[in-house]
Write a structure and sequence with these properties.
Elements lengths: L19 H4 L16 E9 L10 E5 L24 E5 L5 E7 L11 E7 L7 E6 L4 H6 L1 H4 L12 E2 L5 E2 L2 E2 L23
Parallel strand pairs: 1-8, 1-9
Antiparallel strand pairs: 1-4, 2-3, 2-5, 5-6, 7-8
Protein name: Protocatechuate 3,4-dioxygenase alpha subunit
Family: Belongs to the intradiol ring-cleavage dioxygenase family.
GO molecular function: ferric iron binding; protocatechuate 3,4-dioxygenase activity
């Protein structure tokens, strides 16, 4: 569409990407702790589109407390020193939409609270990132009392709860639409920037 000088007619915005695979991942991004850490656990899953097809160019970020429920305020996520737990990680999906983090299971941030990991999703076709969270599956009493889960229709709550692998890892698949669509969250006054600064 040709435009004349001074024409301020709005035009459609462009969709994002796909550029995540080479522009944003960095060495150590998915490794909040080393695999040799005594409490290391794998948090992983696959990102699916509305047709159930894996998305090959998504990017996942997580924020979480440590195993004791303390919320870290340490710098160093972009330049890991191998010792400091910052609670933040970034992982690109592979060619079949799979992502994986090495982290610790989050502790409850207050007595009786259900432990969870905050998850942010970037992908082609999204005008902005998506927010969700994944809860640990074993904390049944805390899950039943969780205010956010209580606000979600009962038949969709399972989309916010990770599944436990046979090896002890946590699987959390993310579905943009369709059957078992992940519950996504909105936060008022959320700035359009994510990730730590160091």
């Amino acid at each position: 569409m040709a435009r004349t000088p001074g024409d301020l007619t709005p035009i459609p915005a462009q969709t994002v990407g796909p550029f995540f695979g080479f522009a944003l991942p960095y060495e150590g991004g998915p490794d909040l702790v080393d695999r040799s850490h005594r409490q290391a656990v794998r948090l992983h899953g696959t990102v699916y589109d509305g047709d159930g097809i894996p998305v090959p160019d998504a990017l996942i970020e997580i924020w979480q407390p440590d195993g004791e429920g303390r919320i870290p305020a340490e710098p160093g996520s972009l330049h890991r020193d191998g010792h400091t737990f910052t609670g933040w990680g970034r992982a690109a999906v592979d060619a079949v939409g799979h992502y994986s983090f090495t982290t610790v299971e989050p502790g409850a941030t207050s007595a009786g609270a259900a432990p969870f990991v905050l998850v942010t999703v970037f992908a082609r076709g999204l005008m902005d990132r998506l927010f969700t969270r994944t809860y640990l599956p074993e904390h049944t009493d805390a899950l039943a009392a969780d205010p956010l889960l209580a606000s979600v229709p009962e038949n969709r709550r399972h989309t916010l709860i990770a599944a436990r692998d046979d090896d002890g890892g946590l699987r959390f698949d993310i579905r943009f639409q369709g059957q078992d669509e992940t519950v996504f969250l909105s936060y008022p006054n959320t700035p359009q920037v994510t990730g730590p600064v160091d």
